[in-house]
Design brief:
The chain has about 180 residues and is an alpha/beta fold. It contains seven helices and five strands; from the N terminus they run E-H-H-E-H-E-H-H-E-H-H-E.
Length: about 180
């Protein structure tokens, strides 16, 4: 089983600002959310936690790891999407909302959703093959891409997807049958 947790709240989250690669730590609410998530995670049989290197995801993972005794590893692929020039803008800014819907285009100075898919889908496929229960501590943009791996999503579903701070989602490995066509 693959479990995915979005990091706890930061000041920029509470201000509804675009937060990508800027390394902002958890605030007090975020630390409390992580502690509550750790209690929930203790009911799961998680042996390993992979975390984004950004401090907000790492601290969330460390709090959970300490509570459940799971091995903690940094995984660079789980770093948040690079939103380029939109970093720090209000999430409702029209220029950000327009750029968010240009799936094939990179944010100016940043990444496209397809850049993120190129690093996340292979990681998920590798973890599925391992068969272990693993928790991924990451960011909303990455949670969105992980969800798209498992669920068919229309464009608006994809753009509007949001995982709450410290919400844990569970994904079962996909059926990957290979068909031979003669």
């Amino acid at each position: 089983m693959i479990y995915v947790i979005r990091h706890g709240e930061t000041e920029w989250n509470s201000q509804d600002r675009v937060l990508g690669r800027t390394d902002i730590p958890l605030n007090e609410v975020g630390r409390s959310q992580a502690a509550a998530a750790a209690a929930k995670a203790s009911e799961l049989q998680i042996g390993r936690i992979l975390t984004s290197p950004l401090s907000r995801a790492y601290e969330t993972a460390r709090i959970v790891s300490s509570a459940i005794g799971a091995r903690l590893e940094i995984c660079d692929a789980l770093i948040e999407m690079d939103f380029g020039l939109h970093e720090g803008q209000p999430r409702k800014d029209p220029s950000y909302q327009k750029a968010k819907r240009d799936y094939f285009a990179r944010y100016e100075g940043g990444e496209s959703f397809f850049d993120v898919v190129a690093r996340i889908y292979p990681l998920i496929a590798e973890l599925e093959v391992s068969g272990e229960n693993v928790l991924l501590s990451t960011h909303n943009g990455i949670c969105r891409v992980i969800c798209s791996y498992y669920e068919d999503m229309g464009n608006e579903d994809f753009v509007s997807f949001a995982q709450r701070n410290c919400e844990i989602r569970a994904y079962e490995p996909r059926n990957r049958r290979i068909k031979t066509v003669l």
